[in-house]
Amino acid sequence: MDIMLFHSVYGPRPAVEAAADRLRAAGHRVWTPDLFDGWTTDSVEEGRAKRDEIGKDELLRRAILAAAPYSERGLVYAGFSLGASVAQTLALGDEKARGLLLLHGTSDLAPNASADGLPVQLHVAEPDPFETDDWLSAWYLQMGRAGADVEIHRYRGAGHLYTDPELPDWDAEAAARTWSVALSFLEELEAAA
Questions:
Q1: Could you tell me the strand order of the sheet in which 75-80 lies?
Q2: Which of 86, 134, 163, 166 might form a disulfide with 175, Cβ 3.0–4.6 angstroms?
Q3: Is the Cα torsion angle 152, 41, 58, 67 positive or negative in sign?
Q4: pLDDT grade for 75, boundaries at 50, 70 and 90
Q5: β-strand partners of 30
Q6: What are the φ/ψ torsions at residue 101 (nearest 5 degrees)?
Q7: What is the rounded CA–CA span in Å between residue 56 and residue 142?
Q8: How far apart (Å, rounded) are the C-alpha atoms in residues 122 and 105?
């Protein structure tokens, strides 16, 4: 599969490239656009400030430009937290999208959003301060109404960005389970292509 993998508000940290390498080792082609011009941080507050400084419209413009050369192939959009939000927005706007892999995050849906059978897999901590139970329930219903085929995997006791070994949220067991399930999801998408 061709996968466009977007980073979190922490920027293009080593964990993003490690995830891409994991996906490449499974036979996928992966691109990791840098939406922050090389800037990284260990602080979620600094990351949010950077996101706000760049602005949502500019982040989406950068993401669209990164994906455009490959979108004709039928991309799987994926991302971590903020990157998951970006991936969701792009996938719902790309009629050739083959799948959506969300790690630690979701996004609002436009009232007229259409997903038309898009396979979607979400991996999120339980509880997650940024993805509350009420929010996730509403998101799930909205994605279903949009026509997406959604599955949600929750990881009790894990921190928000639990797949990054260099952050305090790191949870080795939850991360291992996430990657096992995510790789199976991508294999199924490949088989269906």
A1: 29-31, 2-6, 75-80, 99-103, 119-126, 149-156
A2: 163
A3: negative
A4: very high
A5: 3
A6: -115, 110
A7: 21
A8: 8
Residue 89 burial (C-beta neighbours within 10 Å; 0-12, 13-18, 19+)? buried
Task: Fill in the amino acid letter for 156.
Answer: R
Distance separating alpha carbons of residues 57 and 100, to the nearest angstrom: 21
pTM score above 0.85: yes
The count of C-alpha atoms lying within 13 angstroms of the C-alpha of 21, restricted to the half-sphere facing its C-beta, is 5
Per-residue pLDDT for 110 more than 90? no
| φ, ψ (nearest 5 deg) of residue 125 | -65, 160
Taking 90 as the threshold, does the pLDDT of residue 193 lie above it?
no
Mean pLDDT over residues 17-27, rounded?
Answer: 98
Contact status, residue 180 vs residue 193, Cβ threshold 8 Å: no
Per-residue model confidence (pLDDT) at position 111: 85
**HEC string of 47-82?**
HHHHHHHHCHHHHHHHHHHHHCCCHHHCEEEEEECH
What are the CA-CA distances from residue 9 to residues 80, 105, 136 (Å)? 9, 11, 20
Q: How many residues does the chain have?
A: 193
